[in-house]
Design brief:
By secondary structure, the protein is mostly helical. It has one domain. It has 15 helices and 5 strands. The termini are far apart.
């Protein structure tokens, strides 16, 4: 046999071995991804999987179907970090699914709702209104979003290839493999005795002691009256309206809320959205609430305490921790007095749809004013006094 023939034979053998290796690797990846997913979707693991950042767009539509929860939340990472089903469920006495995803857009949340309702209709849904800024304020979709794994198309028609698309995505996507490995590390740490506080990012603490400049700037903002006027554009909130109509049409109780942001939105934006929601409430066949928590109050002003160290309410990047979620659920669902319910601040959210419109408008303007140094009476001093009184008890909200 000549050298050329030997070389060709060796090349063909190498190609066959290479193909076999590639097929074997792909087969192993498919087996591994499917095996891990079977573990993730078990009832005692879903609650942990929901709280791991970065991969919700791929798995949460599938996990929701497995969980079939009583209550569900939709939105971006501020939603994901706010509600930990592990501590929320004992408080509310119902099952809870957190559909929040990193950087979730209003379009994505609406599509997730469409797909979820096509399979299981929950009792109630929680929506952070600031997660529903339409394009061009927000992008239409973010990385990893895939319409093909949702049960319905944008027009509401059934997605006839959803089963195949889900299997292919879940079995072969590189992002899924990386996320699965991340879940395994988290799960193993928990089994070895670590707490959720130790291993889940939503429980990371902000350290106020190393942020004196930020605290000083915030205090100055709250104490120096400003006559700043809003001159930006007002969002249409079309995806928010579509989402509310979708939920109302399915008979789902709709709990809208403005998350625990340090300052309120400009009055013009808040009033525009309030008018929209009042109109939607009049058309909604199910119950509908709208609680606002995003303004200077005993929770969002945590860093203004004397000698404050690690935050019990906020992560280093400013996201809320699940400790605030317990307060918000207690307020929205009226759970005060239950054994696991935390003590609520006197001034912490109000259902703007349940009070006269004139009062709601005044309330919105007053909370915006606080962020520009305009306070009524001794309100700030009273809030800080209450914060000092209740802070120790709030530290016990989250699991050790």
């Amino acid at each position: 046999m000549g050298l050329v023939a030997q070389s060709r034979k060796a090349s063909r053998r190498f190609v066959r071995v290479l193909i076999l290796c590639i097929v074997s690797i792909l087969f192993a990846v498919v087996l591994l991804n499917n095996a891990i997913f079977q573990l993730i979707k078990s009832p005692d693991q879903i609650r942990t999987a929901e709280m791991i950042p970065g991969w919700g767009r791929i798995y949460k539509p599938l996990l929701y179907d497995a969980a079939q929860p009583d209550l569900v939340s939709f939105g971006y990472s501020w939603v994901r970090d706010l509600f930990d089903p592990e501590i929320a469920e004992p408080l509310i006495g119902k099952t809870f699914f957190n559909f929040g995803v990193s950087g979730g857009t209003s379009y994505e949340s609406y599509r997730f709702m469409q797909g979820a309702l096509a399979y299981h209709v929950p009792e109630a849904a929680f929506l952070d209104v600031r997660a529903f800024y339409d394009v061009p304020r927000a992008r239409l979709t973010e990385h990893q979003f895939d319409d093909s794994i949702l049960r319905v198309n944008r027009d509401g028609s059934p997605n006839t290839t959803v089963a195949l698309s889900r299997w292919f995505k879940m079995s072969t996507a590189g992002a899924v493999l990386g996320s699965n490995i991340r879940f395994l590390r988290t799960n193993l740490a928990l089994r070895a005795g670590s707490t959720r506080q130790d291993v889940l990012e939503p429980y990371q603490h902000r350290d106020w002691s190393i942020m004196p400049d930020k605290i000083a700037d915030y205090r100055r903002q709250l104490m120096e009256p400003s006559a700043e006027s809003f001159d930006g554009d007002i969002p249409t909130f079309s995806d928010l309206a579509a989402s509310v109509k979708l939920l109302c049409g399915a008979g789902v109780t709709v709990h809208l809320y403005d998350g625990p942001y340090p300052c309120a939105e400009p009055t013009e934006i808040a009033l525009s959205r309030f008018v929209l929601l009042k109109g939607l409430q009049a058309q909604c066949a199910s119950d509908m609430t709208f609680h606002a928590f995003g303004y200077p109050n005993a929770v969002t002003m945590e860093g203004l305490q004397e000698g404050v160290g690690e935050s019990i309410f906020f992560r280093p990047d400013g996201h809320p921790r699940p400790t605030i979620g317990q307060l918000i659920l207690t307020r929205i669902l009226g759970l005060e007095g239950r054994d696991l319910a935390p003590t609520l601040p006197r001034d912490f959210g109000v259902d703007l749809l349940a009070i006269p419109e004139s009062e709601a408008r005044t309330w919105i303007a007053e909370k915006d004013g606080r962020c520009r140094g305009k306070w009524s009476g001794q309100t700030m001093e009273q809030i800080l006094a209450e914060l000092a009184t209740n802070y120790a008890s709030w530290a016990d909200i989250a699991p050790e």
